[in-house]
Input
Amino acid sequence: RIYNYGPRDFMQSVFYLPYETTATLANRFDLVVPPLFMNNETGMVTTEISNELKMKLGTALAIPRDIPYFAFKREHSLAVKELSKVFLEVEDIDDVYRFAMEIRDHVNHHIFLAALYHTFYERRDLNPGDLPPLETVLPDRFVPAGVLTKAKQLAKQAILNHHTRKVTVEWHVDETGIATRSPEQGVAYWREDIRLNSFHWHWHLSNPYNIEPGKRDRRGELFYYMHHNMVARYNMERLSVNLRPVEPFEDWHLPIKDGYFPHITAGNGYDWADRQDNSYFKDVRAIPLNESNYVSQLEMWRTHLYHAIDVGYMVDANGVQVRLTDNPRIGEDYGINIMGEAVEAGASVNPALYGDLHNLGHDLLSQSHDPAKRHNTNMGVMGAVETAIRDPVFFRWHKFIDTLFLRYKLTQPSYTTRQLTGAFEIVDVEVMEDNWKDNYTPMPNRLHTFFSPSTFDASRGIDFKMKPDDRITVLLKSDVLDHPEFFYTIQIRNPTSEFKRSRIRIFLAPKYDEDGQRLNFASLLHYWTEMDNFKTDPISPGTDYISRYSMNSSILSSYRSRDPDTDFAFSGCSWPRNLQLPRGTADGMVFHLFVMASDIPPDEHRPKRSLDVNRNRYPYHLPTAPGTPGTSGSFCGRPDEKYPDPWPMGYPLDRKSGHGTIEAFVAEHKNMALSEVLITHAGDPESVGRQQQAERDDCLLFTC
Ligand code: CUO
Output
């Protein structure tokens, strides 16, 4: 047996070189693997699996080996579930490793990976914080094909030269999907951000729609909330680069204006399909025909969902009305959770009536380049969770889905004064950048973003034909949006005579729309994005101060990578740290920073009831914040626990209000505060804080 790597590394090694046989993997990483056999017909050397194991693999064996994992297709999702079950039923992680090694030569590469990622979210003895970043496993999902070709050439040279230890290949975002001639290129840096796409994969494998009902607390609501935040943040980026907010894709008979040409090719020869500008959303005529899907199905489901929203209830499979309310009584579910499950569609109250709207939309869009199946084309990027966000149509589709949820939210009564007020009074709020560089003095409520280089190690995802002792690292490098860390200081008054904790909620939204008009309360509902949500330490009677660091945000995982060759800061399901702030503009974009201090009800002081109290993580997985698993609580939930905040997700900025403006809303509640924050986008980190050159009246050659 191996184990010269340590348990964490040996588990990770199962993920690597996903397109290569186990024999190659074993050779490259010096692993001991199960016995290998040669197939006399194909000449391939592989592991052998028993008939008993074959039976357990179920549908996973039926999916062709070389296609991507199309998460929105039921049969793919079922295959991941069944394969994960094999990994979940074995006793310890040695067995997970052994089975994984036996199985990997026989099932679809990506379904194998997806099942392993899901296993890390499910097993008590594994931790999602230890999952390798997806880009290190599947670099071809994130990097233009030409960059990988160049990396292979350089790696070969390095092997010949012996002395070269590191090969680095750089690329820029304008070398990928969309050319500068298209306005949509302005936000390509965001759509194609590696960690954002990786986060989306993690989210869907942590919260799969076909997981046993009830296994994830408020999963349907989380589907709404995370994707709502994603769309809201995308629109902030659009405003930053003078683009109008994304239009929902809701008239399904009009052409889709923007096509998408991904320029990525999977290393096993799979070519993601291109979609021409002005393609149509069409019925997909599958072979066999009974697996076809029709736009009219989606229209029918949408009508049923709108009906449910308008009448305030859904109808379950037995014909019983299920009330839709976000003020649920004990024993009732949140209406938004029921809606989320029905729309995605997960544990829907009535799949026959409400269908598969979200998933089927992804599926049809990923085939809209060849809906009649006349050209033997592959699927487009919209069909896979790790690539969908690259395509501008992803956000048009999700803006439509979000608008549907917002239609429901607008049926809910405004929060009452009792639901909004609290004992604490927020006196002042300030946000300040870290003192992150010499000769620069940060100023209150002034934040900066810039592009800075980001690197990851591709040597374990692509076979660069190295031998174990070649010791060459292949690094891929590009610029990503980034920002200095910052911290909030909240001056708070506790009018009671006791030390008391509070829950602080922080949201961000732009102050002005694309036409420079102030966004009113109703329009801001589209934009608020969560920045943080946490319980404070006990606040002393009288005036006290709360300080909170951006790195500890509830939308980030608390795990930090220990890989010296990459700067990947977080593992597991985490909003990308580098995209925590919207880009802002060169002359400063104005944002509202909303802060609320809520009282904590007495029963919330008790430790959170774990859904599985025996979870026993390995000691070397100790997170930086004790007791925090390797996921972002707010956007990903926590596999074994109740959602960390009992209020509706997005509270208190998820419902209409009698107030016309956010200022009027805040003015009525002492436990809320609003600050104005200016986010300035600097070209590069070095230009932050540099004084602008004053214009001079000198007589220049061309002015005099
Ligand atoms: Cu995450 Cu449409 O759900 O992609």
Observations:
- The two ends are 81 Å apart (CA to CA).
- The mean pLDDT is 89.
- Residues 200, 204, 227, 358, 362, 388, 398 surround CU2-O2 cluster (CB under 6 Å).
- The chain has 20 helices and 14 strands.
